[in-house]
Amino acid sequence: MLRRKIAIGVNALRPLCNTVLCTILAVCALQATAAQEAAVPTFKIATIPRPAFMNHGETNDASVPLDADYVGPLADKCGVRFEYIVSPSWNRVIQMAKAGIADAIIPTTKLPGREAFLIFPETPYQQAPVVLFTNVSNPATEFSGLSMMNAKRVGKIAGTMIEQSFDAYLKTGQANFVEVSSFEDLFGNLARGRLDYAGGHQEMSLRIINQLGASDKIKPLLPPMGYEGRYFAISKTGKLAQDKSSAAYICLSS
To answer: Which pairs from 115-118 meet CB under 8 Å and 24+ separation?
Structure first.
């Protein structure tokens, strides 16, 4: 936008000056613009394609607020620029945060283990309802408690945290916990009856189920199992955290 305004201004002056003068003005204006852009701090944000961008099989149905929609305005608010690193796996996102390759990650939940290498702001950018999904052939019509999954095949994407009570339940061994590598595997297996249940954030999961053409095979069980805060978490070893007195850090960590 700034470059366009400069170009319009130079064109307006063109009848009043010779070619050499206008060229000098244009070069100086572009150099000033480049200097201003270079002064804006850029930070690398690691994430996975979904739910941050939902760029696989995107359809034209009603849009759902995505994580990128929530954190994008933070860049303008804090006077910084975000450069997204979209990784195929959540485990790789975590490794980039630990290694300082990424300055921050989205979306993540606030857990004690993650505070060893991540800095969480006081409040999440979203409180997302977490829902249990099942095949339409299941006679269950509502979520009645974690015990309904006892001895059932329950799926979750490897390396992800869905909701604290749900995640803790899966670790007890009361359900037949099945880890999968992608949303296609998770909801595809649920649609084919290879899983009995799967947990997921409500809006995002319904969008993915629709994209997979499985809306007639999978149903959500309400009420939600719980609500999970989704955070913009800063890597302790990334560039952003190296200067905790900077305006960018103070703004993004608050």
So the answer is: 117/235, 117/236, 117/237, 118/233, 118/234, 118/235, 118/236
